[in-house]
Specification:
Blueprint lengths: L3 E7 L6 E7 L2 E5 L1 E4 L11 H6 L5 E4 H6 L3 H7 L2 H5 L5 E4 L2 H7 L10 E4 L6 E4 L1 H11 L3 E3 L11 H21 L6 E6 L5 H13 L4 E4 L9 H11 L9 E3 L5 H9 L4 E4 L1 H7 L2 E4 L2 E4 L19 H5 L2 H9 L3 H27 L3 H11 L2
Parallel strand pairs: 4-13, 5-6, 6-9, 9-10, 10-11, 11-12, 12-13
Antiparallel strand pairs: 1-2, 2-3, 7-8, 14-15
Helix pairs in contact: 3-6, 6-7, 7-8, 8-9, 10-14, 10-15, 11-14, 13-14
The protein binds one RNA strand of 73 nucleotides through α5, β13 and α11.
RNA sequence: GCGGAAUUGGUGAAGUGGUUAACACGCCGGAUUGUGGCUCCGGUAUGCAUGGGUUCGAUCCCCAUAUUUCGCC
């Protein structure tokens, strides 16, 4: 079945919404944070550890799985859920972000995008149709349209041409989409240009997708203001009965700000990436476990945290693991960071329910720096 | 006991008679937002074993001392 978004409550003083999304693999509550598992695994974590963190949807990536192991193999395995043993909903990114990270502007044509494989340098060509076909075979619950994710620094002229092409790509992808169990989201682009965001949102909605995302944010050194503007310029034109997904965002304060502006879904590599580099999210901001001040700190990362890492391990121990490059260090920090962001969304949902989101934000900012 | 060689930061080490002593590791920080996983960017020896001497100037030359090391007895 396609997903179904249920709007349960709109917060009185902000644009925040409380909702649920019905999926093939259960009902998830929004606003929510979705951990990223690019290569069909949330790096270092088992599905059980994700369930323990109360994670709902996770991401996988079309581009990476296309190259290895290939969508046909995943298909043979019985689809992505069976292949990776994850029994929650899965969203696949389209490979659009890799247009931004791997291709040069000259490689982007009307037909599709020429890539060089990051694995062996071989030439690849990805089109909107191909991306959707791969995602159909991967059998994720939510597929994303293949878009161009232009840098925030792109000129107005470039951005205008880009969003028009992304709209044509969205239409082409939708036309070939054929998996009845899978929903398809459209992506709003337009940088920090108000009229382009508006145009992109209105035209994308006309194509009638199962959900809408706001892309092209938090890249290329874009300022916070530009990111928040990009959301504010897009949200008014998105339908209330469909979920709204802010792509790639994940810093705690950006999640708070996104929710206030009406975002329902977030994904980000940050919790797992910074974990591998020895960092942990806390209520007081980011903590670098490698700092020498934690050498003899025998308290958990956060006393108030209910994650497996905080209930059982000390900073001194995790610091030691990270310093000697033991995998358990990155695992424990990943468990904590993912739980941290998910717990943040749980609290945000509670604040929406109680209509006290702005108070929650003030309290959050008091501690977080 | 005799003879030779060595002695540069936390470590392994490069190097030159003349402004800021290479590099690597380590250490200390920072970055990271739809993941090109295991990365990137900074900082880190006021001093070249110690004491004398030569020189305008010495880590680099000479002498002594100490330590280490190799060979011989």
């Amino acid at each position: 079945m396609k997903i179904k978004y249920n709007l349960l409550h709109e917060e009185k003083n902000t644009k925040a919404r409380l909702g649920t999304i019905e999926t093939n693999y259960g009902i998830v509550e929004t606003p929510m944070f979705m951990p990223v598992g690019t290569r069909a695994t949330v790096k270092m974590l088992t599905p059980e550890e994700l369930y323990d963190a109360n994670s709902g949807v996770i991401l996988a990536n079309t581009y990476h799985l296309w190259l290895r192991p290939g969508e046909d193999l995943v298909d043979k395995a019985g689809g992505l859920h069976k292949f990776m043993n994850y029994h929650g909903p899965i969203l696949t990114d389209s490979g659009g972000f890799q247009v931004f990270s791997l291709a040069k502007p000259k490689d982007i044509t009307e037909e599709g995008v020429h890539f060089k494989s990051h694995i062996d340098g071989s030439k690849l060509f990805l089109t909107p149709e191909k991306s959707i076909e791969i995602q159909n075979k991967l059998d994720s619950d939510i597929a994303m349209s293949f878009d161009e994710c232009p840098p925030a620094s792109a000129s107005y002229e470039y951005m205008k041409n880009s969003i028009e092409r992304t709209l044509r790509w969205a239409k082409r992808g939708k036309d070939v989409h054929s998996n009845p169990r899978q929903s398809l989201f459209g992506i709003v682009q337009g940088g920090a240009y108000e009229d382009l965001r508006k145009f992109s949102a209105i035209e994308t909605v006309k194509l009638d997708f199962d959900g809408y995302s706001i892309g092209g944010v938090a890249n290329d050194g874009e300022s916070k203001e530009d990111m928040y503007h990009a959301i504010d310029y897009s949200i008014p034109y998105l339908p209330k009965d469909k979920p709204r997904y802010l792509m790639g965002v994940g810093e705690p304060r950006d999640i708070v700000e996104g929710v206030i502006r009406g975002i329902d879904m977030f994904d980000c590599v940050l919790p797992t990436r910074i974990a591998r580099h020895g960092n942990a999210f806390t209520r007081h901001g980011k903590l670098n476990i490698k700092n020498s001040k934690y050498k003899e700190d025998f308290t958990p990362i956060e006393e108030s945290c209910d994650c497996y890492a905080c209930k059982n391990y000390t900073k001194a121990y995790i610091r030691h693991l990270v310093n000697v490059d033991e995998a358990l260090g990155g695992r424990l920090l990943s468990i904590h960071n993912i739980r941290f962001l998910i717990r943040l969304t749980e609290e945000l949902r509670e604040a929406i329910k109680e209509d006290c989101l702005l108070e929650y934000r003030d309290k959050f900012y008091q501690d977080y720096h």
